[in-house]
């Protein structure tokens, strides 16, 4: 239960940062938030590997890859 609360708090913080980024309109700020999201999801995937849980590995890994692709797309646009 404690681990899920930490995860929820982390997700809530990132969600608030994303909403702020939408109103600020700074590409650098949005990129920084995207990098943070990619790092968090990649670490979650590594944790999934260490506990041998395929769902907790492939879900975060896919999310990290999609977020990274979106970041690259945004920066190249």
Automatic annotation (TrEMBL):
Ranges that cross the membrane: 12-38, 58-76
Keyword vocabulary terms for this entry: Membrane, Transmembrane, Transmembrane helix
Identification of the protein by name: Phosphatidate cytidylyltransferase
Organism: Orlajensenia flava
Lineage: Bacteria, Bacillati, Actinomycetota, Actinomycetes, Micrococcales
């Amino acid at each position: 239960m404690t681990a899920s609360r930490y995860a929820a708090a982390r997700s809530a913080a990132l969600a608030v940062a994303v909403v702020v980024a939408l109103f600020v309109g700074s590409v650098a700020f949005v990129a920084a938030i995207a990098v943070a999201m990619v790092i968090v999801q990649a670490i979650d995937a590594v944790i999934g590997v260490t506990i041998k849980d395929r769902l907790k590995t492939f879900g975060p890994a896919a999310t990290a890859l999609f977020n990274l692709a979106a970041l690259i797309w945004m920066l190249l646009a």
